[in-house]
Amino acid sequence: MQHAAPAARPVLAVTLSAALALTVAACSADGRGTDRPAGTTPATAQSPAALPSPAVPPALTGGQARAALITEADLGEAWRPTRGAATWRDEVLKATAERPDCGRLLDVLYTEELFGAATAPRAVVALDDTAGGAQLHYRITSYRAADIDRALAWLATLPDACGRFTARAARGAARVVRVTDVTLPESGDARQGLRVTVSTEDGAVLTLDLVAVRVGDDAISLTSGGLGEPPDDAVRTSVEVGTERLTEVRRQGRAQV
Fold it and tell me: In what order do the strands lie in the sheet with 205-215?
């Protein structure tokens, strides 16, 4: 989806590319990722904002959750631990949309809080693709299975509800957003994936994959992408390896709370 860009395009593209090189070290400190499928899902679809806040089930300990994370070694030689904060999200994703669910999708991509503000221990890792410039954020959250499935069902509605829409940045700049399904490995108990492309007025295109997998009452969620095509092999590996690792950690025992 490359467009002929006006003279301003190189400036934003360079700014975004430079920001991509600095990715989320701050997230490791606060455990939130950034500040800010085919699979089995139930029929009822609700946005994360509509989810209740029930008691969280017995949770993985922080150590168990960290042991279940993927690492750069799982993804290949080009991948490295992130080196800084991803400020490019502010440039492209901080926008509003007329349709509420479409606006919530942008909020989820910005905050990476797909399941709401969970209170259970969780773990997060951020990795950079030094060859292609992509960035992958990966997190593990403990939540009630029914609420995870409700969020997955909401994601499944978005290619129809928000297949193409226009969002507006703070100063009125238009963002053309497209949402499609992503095919995922048959991993975990339920899963859903989306590809979201955001095109700016000067021709820059941000492409992100948003993926979530449920394993019992734990969830893996990830975003992967940048100014080029997201690395499909990294997403597939993250889902397959990550689900196997989380399943094994769960088998080893859960903390009692």
Answer: 79-81, 123-129, 135-142, 218-226, 205-215, 190-200, 174-181, 164-169, 95-97
pTM over 0.85: no
* DSSP state letters, 17-35: HHHHTS--HHHHHHTSSS-
pLDDT at residue number 186: 94
> What is the pairing mode between strands 205-215 and 190-200?
antiparallel
Q: What is the DSSP letter of 104?
A: H
CB contact set of 7 (below 8 Å; sequence gap of 6+): none
- Measured CA to CA in angstroms, residue 251 lies from 40, 59, 65, 237, 256 at distances of 22, 13, 13, 21, 14
d(CA 54, CA 155): 21
> pLDDT, tens digit, for every residue of 235-247?
999 999 999 999 9
Q: What is the DSSP letter of 114?
A: T
Q: Where are the beta strands (DSSP E) in the chain?
A: 79-81, 95-97, 123-129, 135-142, 164-169, 174-181, 190-200, 205-215, 218-226
What average pLDDT score do residues 45-73 get? 72
Q: Output 149 or 54, whichever has higher pLDDT.
A: 149
- Residue 179's identity, in one-letter code, is V
- Averaged pLDDT score across all residues of the chain: 79
DSSP state of 120: S
| Best CA proximity match to 191, nearest among 179, 200, 182 | 182
